[in-house]
Amino acid sequence: MYDRDWQPSASLENLKRRAQFLTEIRRFFYQRDVLEVDTPILSHAAPTAPYLDSFSTEYIAAGGQKTPCYLHTSPEFAMKRLLAAGLGDIYQIAKVFRNGEQGRHHSPEFTMLEWYRPSLNYHQLMAEVDDLLQSVVGLPAAVKLSYQQVFSQYLAIDVSDVSEQQLKQFAICKITSLPDDWQADKDGWLELLMSELIEPQLALSGQPYIIYDFPASQAQLAKLHRSDDGAVVAARFEVYARGLELANGYDECLDANELSQRFAKDNLIRQRQGKAMMPMDQHLIAAVNAGLPACTGVAIGVDRLLMLNLGVNDINAVSSFRFEQS
Fold first, then answer.
1. What gap in Å lies between CA 147 and CA 154, rounded to an integer?
2. Alpha carbons 230 and 152: distance in angstroms, whole number
3. Spatial separation of the C-alpha atoms in residues 192 and 257, rounded to whole Å
């Protein structure tokens, strides 16, 4: 069974292009005077977000004492500590790990590009992401739409004035494969409609889409602010291109108490879902409390960017070895 399985899952040409692609990403940030950093992959804390599942392990000291540790799902928390220490505009290309994620567009281990810009505001960061997609990946200019606009344009739904029950009825009517007894909260229905009905329509266009100003309840680690129409929304954006979700970015929350409350709420949700509660990153809380500068940040899957650049639709075509071969 191993006669052929030792060989790379990607072609040698794609692996050479991958090396060149990483060089081009680094050149993009060098030209903008953004510093490359390197942070630990192994951590004593882990994200509390209910949609993320971390790989866990143990550090065993010489005397046999065991300390639980986690492989990071993103370099975000460590990078924010560097920001709080005063390092300024920074980026990182890192291997990250997410348990339970595998498929044509997912791998338990993948490469993430993440950067933070104290010198750029929310909309300037979106413009920089668009510049990267055009100059490095070769995509056309992105279309920018607010979360409110995209639901109104594609589904004729006003997200600021729609009930959970109305969303449920709409979803059951429009998504024929959905069981009648499917259960979700309001955000769950919105996310389902986005993934099942809106994203496939965005994929029909050759252009990337930047969707910004998500509902306040989907803030994750973003600030809350007022949109152009006066609604309180999350200063968060996502990027989609040709059927792939590429990026998640924020105007970063700078309130340590607010972050602690969000982490605690996440853990309660995890508990209700039967998942393990995650240890909060107290180093991050202390760093934010000490003074995280006003900044914006975004994370992008490098493998997916390269998939778009090469015109392939399987992450294994841009990886040296697929997960089953590791």
1. 11
2. 17
3. 30
Which residue stretches of 156-300 are H helix? 164-174, 186-193, 199-203, 256-272, 282-291
- Domain ranges in the chain are 12-142+256-325
Q: Which two three-digit tokens encode residue 71?
A: 């492989």
Question: Measured between alpha carbons, how far is 22 from 136 in angstroms, rounded to an integer?
Answer: 10
Contact (Cβ atoms closer than 8 angstroms) between residue 10 and residue 319:
yes
**Beta strands in the chain, from DSSP E residues, in sequence order:** 35-36, 42-43, 56-60, 66-71, 90-97, 109-117, 143-146, 209-215, 224-226, 232-241, 244-251, 296-301
Q: Which amino acid is at 155?
A: L
DSSP string, 90-119: EEEEEEEE-TT--SSS--SEEEEEEEEETT
Structure tokens belonging to residue 162? 């729609």
Q: Which tens digit of pLDDT belongs to each residue from 125-183?
A: 999 999 999 999 999 999 999 999 999 999 999 999 999 999 999 999 899 888 877 88
pTM, two decimals, is 0.94
Amino acid at 149: Q
Give me the chain's average pLDDT, please: 95
What single-letter DSSP state applies at residue 4? Answer: T
Q: State the Cα–Cα distance between residues 48 and 46, nearest whole angstrom.
A: 6
Considering the domain 12-142+256-325 in this protein, what is its CATH number?
A: 3.30.930.10
Contacts of 80 (CB under 8 A, 6+ apart): 116, 252, 284, 287, 288, 292, 297
Separation of alpha carbons 245 and 106, rounded Å: 11
Other beta carbons within 10 angstroms of residue 59's beta carbon come to 11
Phi, psi of 148 (to 5 degrees): -60, -45
Residue 233 · residue 224 · CB < 8 Å? yes
